[in-house]
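Hello Y.,

Per our agreement to keep a running log of every chain we model this quarter, I'm adding this entry. I've kept the format consistent with earlier entries: sequence first, then predicted structure.
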Amino acid sequence: MHRPVEPGDALKQSIEQGTAIVGIVGMGYVGLPLMLAATAKNYRVIGFDIDAPKVEGLNRGNSPLKHIGDVAIEKVVAAGRFEATADLSRFGEADVVIICVPTPLGPHQEPDLSFVAETTRSIAKCLRRGQLVILESTTYPGTTEEVVRPILEAGGMRSGTDFFLAFSPEREDPGNADFTTHAIPKVVGGDGATALELAASFYRRVVTRVVEVSSTQTAEAVKIVENVFRAVNIALVNELKLVFNRIGIDIFEVVDAAKTKPFGYMPFYPGPGLGGHCIPIDPFYLTWKAREYGIDTRFIELAGQINSTMPDYVVRRTAEMLDRLTGKGLSQARVLIVGVAYKKNVDDTRESPAFAIIDLLEERGAKVDFHDPHVLEIPRTREHAKLAGRRSVEAAAVGSYDVAVIVTDHAAIDWQALVDNAKLVIDTRNATAKVTGRDGKVFSA
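Predicted structure for the entry above:
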């Protein structure tokens, strides 16, 4: 007796044979590495992005991300495994559609799902039977079922019967050569058993390990927990930094010594504030959702408050040391910000604390420039639009500034030369730990 044809059988076969066409929405820090991982397994990928110049560049083999480079893009374009498009009416060509669009915060720290909703509406216009839609954008538990599914079902088709829906949180760490997309385990939750089976089948061909969970809500919660964990622990060491700096203890030395304990401890390091798309944002997605259930997430919100005050602490510490050592106030000072990327060795400036620090310094009258070997020009952002277009100055000019404030500890910067030539250095990252001649010139913040 033959087994009846089940929904998704044809799609599963094409996924397992590598003949399924994959559509990835958003050719950025998440979508582009995922495209490379999928094309490496011989899938044909259509990359969707509404940025027309980016699309044109990708089709010429140009990477929009410095840490990926052009060669990787050129290779898959030349092989015919990848093309980019801004034509959203082509969603129907893809068998698997993966959404990798931003999920920022609104003006009152509320989730902004406008990119997810608008993308889903565009997919819904082209939705056909047998397609698999996967959301990867980080969000609060319930988004896939409460936001994405109703939009897709509005045309009459049903999830689990006509099309399939899943959630798999992105876990990208831009610039981390040890953990590429292929090497990072993929958590997957499906809207029903068939959706889970299809999504897991796809990711098994693309990454080394797939972790299946019971629902899309659980998969969404996994990502939130990962980032809340980091945000809370960073807040803890940031608060300890304030205490130990006042006492005269080096927090970095303390953490390095503490991490020699082989159990019961995990090192986290303080900094000038949180950056990147995930850690400064995701905890607020959970606090917003928790209020729907009448729960106040006091611990998480306190961590957010501590981390968000770090740029202000850096500015106050800079003003304090300027006044103590030079007699100048910020209104008379020229300040060089060293590094505006949110983390070292990448050109990613999303939510970078450097921008808040620049704004705070300029509000107090300081003249501010920046140096960053990875960011030659500040891109436009919603929160710091007035900084857009400012260009990096040469590091050799550091001696003409009253103080250099290290925000990002790029490996490409010659820290010994910077300290040698600077008048005063405020180091928020312990970048100058191995530099000689620090005494009396370099101070932590």
